[in-house]
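Q: A reviewer asked whether we had any structural model of the full assembly, not just the individual parts. We don't, so I'm hoping you can provide one. Inputs are below.
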Amino acid sequence: MAGDDAILETEGLTKEFRGFVAVRDVALRVRRGAVHALIGPNGAGKTTCFNLLTKFLQPTAGRILFEGRDITGLRPAQVALLGIVRSFQISAVFGHLTALENVRVALQRKRGESFDFWRSEKVLERWNGRARELLDAVGIAAFADVPAAELPYGRKRALELATTIALEPRLMLLDEPTAGMGREDVGRITALIREVAKGRTVLMVEHNLAVVADLCDTITVLVRGEILAEGDYARISADPRVREAYLGSEEG
Amino acid sequence: MAVGSEPAVLAPVAATGHGLRHQRLGIALLAALLAVAPLFLYPVFLMKVLCFALFACAFNLLIGYVGLLSFGHAAFFGTAAYAAGHAAKVWGLSPELAVLFATACSAALGLVFGWLAIRRQGIYFAMITLALAQMLYFFYLQAPFTGGEDGIQAIPRGRLLGLVDLSHDLAMYGVVLVVFLGGFLLIYRTIHSPFGQVLKAIRENEPRAVSLGYDTDRYKLAAFVLSAALSGLAGGTKAIVFQLASLTDVHWTMSGEVVLMALVGGLGTVFGPVVGAAVVVSLQNYLAGLGHWVTIVQGCIFVACVLAFRRGLVGELARLIRRPL
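A: Here is a predicted structure for the entire assembly that you could use as a starting point for your response.
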């Protein structure tokens, strides 16, 4: 354990769907405080990996260790409570709730369970201040009272980020945070992620290599469910196997 | 192609945060209207409307605020009717205890049905609730205490707390009004509680709610039991009012009717199910002369709702005035 500062580790992580092996024998190691990218061509098993790590899927084989603790048997809500909070490929906001309420649903988790149907939601107002701070931090304070569904796409992703940070996660898993964004939004979200990554660990799936090069200190390349290479951007981009499997199309 | 320009229109217009004063006003208005209604309308008709309105509100709590379509809610309504009827007639319980017992029976049944159904989503959830309710229907058809095709008849209305004689329709109406308003306010509070916030989050995006650490199955189950209990409160009260519990109350058409009521009024609105229940019960009453054609008329209304105004009467009104109702 000493000197080995991995916040998340997997051993032999495998997921099989009716004979099709989506993720095979993956040994992933995410260093505490790192911004770690998981890249690879379509169908490489990146999102499946995410679903396994957050327990939305149950692995066929292998173990997942979070801060040295085996979390393989936990349920997704329990994993979230330990401090692993994920985002989704398609922006996941609560459309009919206002931006403020979106963030508050996450903050509300701090009071424990919320089965008290007889109590007024006024008790939640004590988190309004913190919710506004978080909205402000991602630059959408002006939209606090707007239903999330009415926000433009880039703002939705910002809101999702604010909601995720509200839980004060120790490990954030971002699934393609810049997918489907215009260039300006990509710049804004990248800056935001850099900001919120301070003092946290981030594992992200990302297709935009410019973003990866810009943000991430470690990159794992996944091809056909298996780890092909790992290292920093310079090393990965120089690796001939990676170039062939992943970057090759850009070269030729 | 800069995409940075802010759609400025979005920011202030759709503010929903500022209070729900008009909803409170609406509730006060509704209570006042119902208090004076017996001066103008036949109390027995009004009591029927109120029982079904409460039933529809309880159903709407699930479909409108958790996004769960139960197609077996007649099970809770009917079970409570039998339970209240049996308790009042055979055991000689006072009406308030009979209704309480009925509500508890439906809550317990809701726990079992919910526990079985909640693991499935969407159409599968609806089918499981329907299947369970049908099993219960055939059980009640055979069970000795339900009276089979005859049902439990001549259930005594009794005396409330041993004091107030409920055989008088106006006294009975007073009780039903209090029960309805109590149930309605409880649902209103639930919607606007910390629990309600989590329910709405689950309705909007369940995986996201899970990823924020909410064990959504437990929240859905709690909402299901609450809805079942309130449906039972409605069913038990209905049995006392009409002094009858019959197979009609547990039949699948009753589950369909409550869907229709919620839909006509507006799913996910506070007042919609009340309006929907009033419309459907009125149709049944005033078109009773048409016999089986009533079902056809109801079917046409259902089709019209789905095609023309999917938000329901109250839902469309809410959109017009841009306020949640």
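A: Points you may want to mention in the reply: Residues 114 and 224 of chain B are 6 Å apart (CA to CA). The interface with chain A takes residues 1-4, 7, 10-12, 14-18, 186, 189-190, 192-198, 200-201, 203-205, 207-216, 218-219, 222, 226 of chain B (CB under 8 Å).
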